Amino acid sequence: GAGVSQSPRYKVAKRGQDVALRCDPISGHVSLFWYQQALGQGPEFLTYFQNEAQLDKSGLPSDRFFAERPEGSVSTLKIQRTQQEDSAVYLCASRVGTTNTEAFFGQGTRLTVV
Amino acid sequence: AQKITQTQPGMFVQEKEAVTLDCTYDTSDQSYGLFWYKQPSSGEMIFLIYQGSYDEQNATEGRYSLNFQKARKSANLVISASQLGDSAMYFCAMSPFSGGYNKLIFGAGTRLAVHP
């Protein structure tokens, strides 16, 4: 596809379950980002990949959060032992290079932990 | 501390009129980028406009312009000739050099409603 694709669009998880969120960036984009957007707030940075290298994971809230991009294209954000405070929209974005240009966002995955 | 402040939780504008959405930022970096994104109810963040900290001219993209006042650390978005489809959340964001330009810091957003 032409844009950033995220799946699933919606995910309901029982507290304590593990979830995996997928991001397909725009083909050829070097940079990939994950953000967390709580209801009524702006997105907050989670992590950044340049190709397959995770260069910044300073925004991951706990060691229950793990992200990977093993071949430098598709990325997965995994949340282990989900808790209610993990409920949010998880946005993925990609950028063509590494300079300060615009990032293109997917539609997000809305995670609800019950 | 790096921070974006958007003081207007909600704004109303009449169709075809211009509207200004406020954004102030705080950073000690000399080099940074400023972005505006639109988020409709469908959820995706749509890039609108970019201003580099060393750009002397205010950025413009169609009906969008960015009123960049560096000394005041403000980067207001001006939308001219508002359309009904402009109704959405608008986020101001900053990408500082100290983050390698690899981290967007967002404000809380402004919800714009365009009335016919």
Verbal overview:
The complex is a heterodimer of chains A (114) and B (116). Chain A has 114 residues and is mainly beta. Helices cover 0% and strands 48% of the residues of chain A. In chain A, the strands form two sheets. In chain A, strands 2, 4, 5, 6, 9, 10 and 11 form a seven-stranded mixed β-sheet that branches. Chain A has a four-stranded antiparallel β-sheet with strand order 1-3-8-7, with no helix packed on it. In chain A, strand 5 (44-50) and strand 6 form a beta hairpin. The mean pLDDT of chain A is 95. Chain B is built from no helices and twelve strands. Helices cover 0% and strands 52% of the residues of chain B. Chain B is mainly beta and 116 residues long. In chain B, a hairpin with a 6-residue loop joins strand 5 (32-39) and strand 6 (46-52). The mean pLDDT of chain B is 95. In chain B, strands 2, 5, 6, 10, 11 and 12 form a six-stranded mixed β-sheet that branches. Chain B has a four-stranded antiparallel β-sheet with strand order 3-9-8-7, with no helix packed on it. Chain B has a two-stranded antiparallel sheet with strand order 1-4. Chains A and B meet through strand 4, strand 5, strand 9 and strand 10 of A and strand 5, strand 6, strand 10 and strand 11 of B.
Strand content of chain A: over 45%
Tell me, rounded to a whole number, the average pLDDT of chain A.
95
Ranges of chain B with pLDDT <50 over ≥5 residues? none
The share of residues in helices of chain B is under 10%
Amount of helix of chain A = under 10%
Element order, helices and strands of chain A?
Answer: EEEEEEEEEEE
Low-confidence stretches of chain A: none
Output the helix-strand order of chain B. EEEEEEEEEEEE
How confident is the prediction overall: mean pLDDT of chain B? 95
Number of helices of chain B: 0
Question: Rg of chain A to the nearest angstrom?
Answer: 13 Å
From the spread of the alpha carbons, the general shape of chain A counts as globular
The geometry of chain B reads as globular
Most extensive protein-chain contact, per-chain counts: A-B, 30 and 26 residues
State which percent range the strand residues of chain B make up: over 45%
